[in-house]
Amino acid sequence: MFDVKRFIEEQLAAITAKIDGKAIIACSGGVDSMVAATLASRAIGDKLLAIYVDTGLMRKGETDEVREMLQETGINFKIVDAGDEFFSALKEVTDPEQKRKIIGEKFIRVFEREAKGFGAKYLVQGTIAPDWIESGNGVRDTIKSHHNVGGLPKDMGMILCEPLYDLYKDEVRQVARFLGVKASERQPFPGPALAVRCLGEVTPENIVIVREACHIVEDEIQKAVANKKMEMPWQYFAVLLPTKSVGVQGDRRAYGRTVVIRAVASIDAMTATYSKIPLDVLDAISTRITNTMKAQVNRVVYDITNKPPATIEWE
Amino acid sequence: MKVYVIDNGGQWTHREWRVLRYLQVDTKIVPNTTPFEDLQDLDGLVLSGGSPNVASDVDAMGNNGEYLDKAEYPILGICAGMQFLSEHFGGRLGPAEIPEFGAVDLSIEDHKGIFRNVPDKITVWASHNDEVKVVPKGFIITAQSPSCPVEAVRSLTKPIFGVQFHPEVEHTQFGEQMFQNFLDIISEQKR
Lengths: 315, 191
What we know:
- The complex is a heterodimer.
- By secondary structure, chain A is of the alpha/beta class.
- Chain A is built from 9 helices and 9 strands.
- Chain A has helices spanning 4-18, 31-44, 62-73, 83-89, 96-118, 129-135, 169-179, 204-226, 279-292, and strands at residues 22-26, 48-54, 77-81, 120-124, 159-161, 235-249, 252-266, 272-274, 297-302.
- In chain A, the strands form 2 sheets. In chain A, strands 3-2-1-4-5 form a 5-stranded parallel β-sheet, with helices on both faces.
- By secondary structure, chain B is an alpha/beta fold.
- Chain B has a single domain (3-190), classed as Rossmann fold (3-Layer(aba) Sandwich).
- Chain B contains 4 helices and 9 strands; from the N terminus they run βαββαβαβββββα.
């Protein structure tokens, strides 16, 4: 079994030994980075500054939610508004690997600036095993470049500290619960955020659509779970496709985009099955999406693919 | 007990390491280019899965052949590891007639090796593009599926076992039991 107490002791000792001076930590508010931040904060206290980057690609209300969460922890933090920078770097980019590498690189540039400002030599990240496994290296194929691994440029001027390197999400959650980290049950959210849920070019208009669609999926599924209609999925969200199709709305022809509902059950994200969502819940999601965003979306489909052969996210 | 995992570049190599750790084994992931002399004093070895097309990409499989020839302790080959050992001992590989990604209905025929105390019919997860077409001499097929005739093999003369599917992933039933059986075989051999 996974020995949580021992892991925490070992990592606290390792972080203290490794970090001499100040450190910043990349903090998205997700369970991995919150656990890493909590461990680092316990080890080095106010020599740590947590940086949350608002990339403009986050979910509805996410920045406010994370701000509140960080305030409660008492960890030193700073919110960096970098939306314009990210959108401009992603202009006209459609290849998923390129998106990931660009985003990874932009994050690093933001962190380098903030580290300089704070006087930090170290960058702490909540990187976990699936991140580096799927990013590949000489011996392993690249399934997808994770933003905190594949996108790191070679000229990075900081020393990396990744206390959760060998863990899987289920193990991180055990650590989170033990430490009382509020984000312990939060569903996984990709580092590249909504950029990888928007197939094709990442424009502010497209992000608005997929942000609303994700919100609707999350809201309806959470309601269904509360009403005991289904089990809470491991991960559940919407994807916006560039595919357009014909529709009919109010006796008029429509030619709009397609949204995919994606929900999976998993334990460690390394294998997953699509969630068995009751049809009336799918109904509610579909109708709400196409009513709310009738000008942009007129079709909703449900992804019924396991991992393998698909991955959980679409990009 | 010391059982290492040979990294053939698989997505679930690290998961194999995790299962062994959970079973309280002294374990480490090592590159498949590690010379056998560094692995001499182990109690067992797991040859992990990997992405190489084993039949044509032999260079990507490093020293797996050396381990199979020189080790006297039990070896478990998973996916690409199993394909490699099958070919190494004289069998033949080829593209899978029906590739398998995800759930597979396994029918187990032989319960002597790593399938001790495992029911005849279970669900396992696989992810493979190639398969064993001809089983090497001295080996028997211990399990099959509707889409793949050679899902598992074992040697009748050496403690060598192979599975095409992945016992280390969460979705495979009795996966941990299979690893425990492998460890039990190691203990029995040591005595």
